[in-house]
Amino acid sequence: MYSQSLLLLASILITAGAEANYPLCADSEPTLLGSQLPTHMPGVPDTADPGKPIFLPAQEGVSWGLSLPQTSLKEGQIIPVFIWIDNSTDKNQSHYYCCNYSFLKHIRIFDSTGQRLISSDEANILKSRTKGGDVIESCSCSSYTSVGPRSQSVVDYGNLALAFTLKPGRYFLTVKYPGVLTAEIQNEKLPAETAGINFTIQAK
Description:
- A hairpin with a 6-residue loop joins strand 3 (54-55) and strand 4 (62-67).
- The strands form 4 sheets. The protein has a 4-stranded antiparallel sheet. Strands 5-13-12-8 form a 4-stranded mixed sheet, with no helix packed on it.
- It has helices spanning 120-130, 160-163; strands at 5-7, 14-15, 54-55, 62-67, 72-74, 80-87, 93-98, 107-111, 135-136, 142-147, 151-159, 169-175, 196-202.
- It has 2 helices and 13 strands, in the order E-E-E-E-E-E-E-E-H-E-E-E-H-E-E.
- The protein has one domain (5-202).
- It is 7% helix and 32% strand.
- It is mainly beta.
């Protein structure tokens, strides 16, 4: 049901016409996905339960989803989020992931006012573009995973606490179909009737 092909590539996020920025995708230990859940992220126990996923409506038989095992957390705590594929087709569905980075292309976070938050990588992209630069993405810790026909599985994961500065408060995490990581929608407001997961960050 699951297939893996581990890729180890030298990684740097290059900005043309501006100083170089380094991505969050580098990870000291490649993580297996599929039949073995990605439990090697620091602070996540080997018995980690990814939680119950929520899914978007299917497109051509494939639906993307996410799960957040904990919804009440302390400031500075690791916040693992898991990305899922529900495959109702008769073919394998492959997914390429970059450790602790590619998951950002599948999520959005809104604060209690409904304002979309910008990840540190999106902030770097925005900074580069204001200086006339372009961004090239590559990865030092990556792999492919495959979800078999008529099944669902975790295909990606990341730590929200590394990608976002989350102060104490209430937040709303939503899943979106894959797209290019961009800061062009930095003023996006929470759409009405959006499926997602509420979570709270408490002071230390």
